[in-house]
Amino acid sequence: MYQRFIRQLLPKCSHNVIQAKQEIKWLVFYINNKYNNNYSSSNNNCSSSNNNYNNINYIDNNINYSDNINLNDYNNNNLSIKEIIEKKFSEKEREILNELIKERVEQSKPLQYILGTQPFCDLEIITKPPVLIPRWETEEWTYQLITKLNHLFSINNNNYKYNNDDKKYNKKYNKKYNKKYNKKYNKKYNKKYNILDICTGSGCIALSLANSLPPNTCQIYGIDISDDALSLANLNLANLNNNNNNNNHDNNDNNNSNNNKMNNQVKFSKLDILQSSIEEIKSLFNEDDGIDLIVSNPPYISPMEYNNNLDPDVKLWEDKCALMANDDGTEFHNRIAYLASNYLLRRNNNNKFHDDENQEIIIKKYQIPQLVMEIGGSHQVEKVIHYLNKYHFGWTQIWKDATGKERCIVARL
Amino acid sequence: MVSIYSFRPIFLIPSKCLYYYSAKKCLVQNCTFSSVTTKPISSFKGSLLNNKVIERLEKLTTRHTVLSKELNSQSLDVIDSDFLARNSKELSDLSSIVIPYQEMKKTQGELDEINMFISDKSGDEDFKKLAHEEYQETIEKLKSLEQSVITALLPKDDIDEKNAVLEIRAGTGGEEAALFAADILNMYERYALLCKWKFEKLSIDEDSLGAIKEVTASISGVGVFGNMKYESGVHRVQRVPATEKAGRVHTSTITVAILPEPTEADINIRELDLRIDTYRSSGKGGQHVNTTSSAVRITHIPTGFVVAIQDERSQPKNKAKALKILKARLFDMERNRVHQERSYARKRQVGTGDRSEKIRTYNFAQNRVTDHRINLTLHELENVLNGESLQTIMNGLKIFYQSEALQNENY
Ligand SMILES: C[S@@+](CC[C@H](N)C(=O)[O-])C[C@H]1O[C@@H](n2cnc3c(N)ncnc32)[C@H](O)[C@@H]1O
């Protein structure tokens, strides 16, 4: 049966057996968690003692079932996926697995819509059709951006070393430290760093920045035209707030943090970035003094590409309006560059979000941009650079992704 | 006048010392050590502290007394922060040595008294029995105190505080070895849990029966490498495999490697030296496709090291894991090179040298685990394999290697 499932999935996995096995594994864990809560709950019991990082247990190949804690059984808890499907699963569970694989193969339903989540940076982002599923390329540059920004926030604060890897592990420690840190920080810099995520979709970029930057350093805004996207983004926000709440029992002594369970505040609003007037756009922010950083993964597939060669997984399931853009897919980049330069970004004379000479140095040293836009590949570089130059961006750079493709264009005025 | 001891929580207890005690405490809280039958590593007559070391300890004690007096004579109101900064560090370093040393001397005195009781020919027999019990307890206490003194006396190796990458590979013995690799993985995972460390599997190469050909995990927490470094080497299992019908005992082996995990500052890999392969890296990527293939393979071109990771659904995370392993391997290689270049490296440095050495045997029929380096045998296989008694072996190794180091220190 296992072999049959693998064969069925192969066409969806570029005929790569390892990948087909992986997809089955994730489906099996999904079914296990959803329909058989007693496994996962006892697993949680065991991990709650050592903080939050164990909630990623499910990705492990050998599931430690409820007997995880039972010392006598430690020899038997290595079950292969094949054995789970064929021995441990009930008839009903096998039937569900069969149905899900059918959906995946016959209807081209993306795995992430079936599983309902996609990991993104340190978060589990909820996914729902037709809102765009976060891509690994986006996750990759978001990580990179977070690393750069953390340099900016650690100015004058050598003690505060923010390490993403250890973040969950050190959460408790950080919490204590942050209180001290915040007091110091807020006294000195009263202005927050304003970030705007244009075309936010599921909210993945905005929420990851909010979660991974030091507490109370930023105010983050996300905008999107689609109601589906906005409600999903807000669902993700609520979900993260709840999760954080559950995990931190020592939250109570943080009286002032009622709506502040994420490290930084995020606000999502509905807006058509192409059509809206400047007044409408500006009215969304409390700040008069402008935005410090604009990030965007706007639609960038040209109508020709959209009609001719697009995976059915993408075309049949994801919102057309999340993918397709005019002018060879660069319509949004043009508009965003224009708005950013003329209206949105903090201007030169008060360029700094706080008064610190070091800030200039850090920005230069780590090449921290003011504008980050994802692109579809090398074919769009020339056009987008042209827009940026037209709107007086003095410094531009291209970020490549792990496969060596031009993935982002970043710029400063 | 304020007694110097009221300062203790602030600067007299060195972090290392605190860790030592807290680690011990956490283990005790989390599991009950079953009574252990071990051959004594060294009877107390053969205390590890020789005359030279004791001479040095006495000097340090004098210095400690002088410094404490000076610090004590400072009034709290007009405290000179420069003076404090200069001296409190030294005092705190000294205290970590002197306090257990004083305690040790006191305990030694108690031991002498007990000895007198025991050798008193006219004494009551019941009384003597009691004295014998007390004697054993006091010896244990002395040993543990001596260990604290030695730990504090030896130069601290920063590398001991690092996190570690654990690699387990099935060796000779086919599937039986792979099954044993799974047992050992479980042992370290449970042990990490008891130590309140974070244990994260990075990659796993598994047979269908839950037998592990190769597994890599990252362990992070306080003092991980310092504790785990003695685990590197060949572990041997002797048991009747489940599949063996004739009931013959098979011997198979696995290899364990513990690599210190380098920090950013320790190692710098040039982007250019890496080749990163992903499935389906042809095509446009980005919004055009929605791939679920998150597998990543990184090749370090100059050395030819290859690391492939596929376990996470997130490709950047797989990449980060692969890089972590790659960096640990490169760092380890570099350490070995430096180590070998040193002409004075007569002594095998633990955690770097020979990983093909057979260090431990797990014998199921005899219910025993023997560590061959220190000739220590525990007759409680089960408790070792579930991580609980592993600390006993590790302590033994620590004492052994530290006293070895102490003999080689030049005073
Ligand atoms: C490619 S998706 C990006 C989603 C998300 N930021 C991510 O990286 O996964 C583009 C998003 O832009 C939104 N969008 C399309 N046209 C828009 C417009 N005119 N104004 C604002 N948002 C728009 C879509 O609803 C969609 O959510």
From TrEMBL, chain A:
Write one Pfam family the protein is assigned to.
Answer: Eco57I
At the top level, the lineage of the source is Eukaryota
Q: Which part of the chain is the Type II methyltransferase M.TaqI-like domain? A: 219-309
The protein in question is named Type II methyltransferase M.TaqI-like domain-containing protein
Q: Gene Ontology cellular component?
A: mitochondrion
Species the sequence originates in: Diversispora epigaea
> What biological processes does GO assign it?
DNA modification; methylation
Checking CDD domains in the record gives: AdoMet_MTases
Give the matching PANTHER family.
Answer: HEMK METHYLTRANSFERASE, MTRF1L RELEASE FACTOR GLUTAMINE METHYLTRANSFERASE
What InterPro entries does its record include?
Answer: DNA_methylase_N6_adenine_CS, MethylTrfase_TaqI-like_dom, N5-glutamine_MTase, SAM-dependent_MTases_sf
GO MF, any single term:
nucleic acid binding
Q: Where is this region: Disordered?
A: 242-263
TrEMBL record, chain B:
So what family is this one in? Belongs to the prokaryotic/mitochondrial release factor family.
Coiled-coil residue spans: none
Keyword Protein biosynthesis attached: yes
Q: Which domain of life is it from?
A: Eukaryota
**Protein name (record):** Prokaryotic-type class I peptide chain release factors domain-containing protein
* One Gene Ontology molecular-function label: translation release factor activity, codon specific
Q: Which HAMAP family match?
A: Rel_fac_1
Return the Pfam families for the record: PCRF, RF-1
SUPFAM superfamilies referenced in this protein's UniProt entry, alphabetically = Release factor
Q: Which Gene3D superfamilies match?
A: 3.30.160.20, 3.30.70.1660, 6.10.140.1950
What PROSITE patterns does this protein's entry cite?
RF_PROK_I
Kindly give the InterPro entries that the UniProt entry links to this protein.
PCRF, Pep_chain_release_fac_I, Pep_chain_release_fac_I_sf, Prokaryotic/Mito_RF, RF-1
List, alphabetically, the GO terms of the cellular component aspect. Answer: mitochondrion
One biological-process term from Gene Ontology? mitochondrial translation
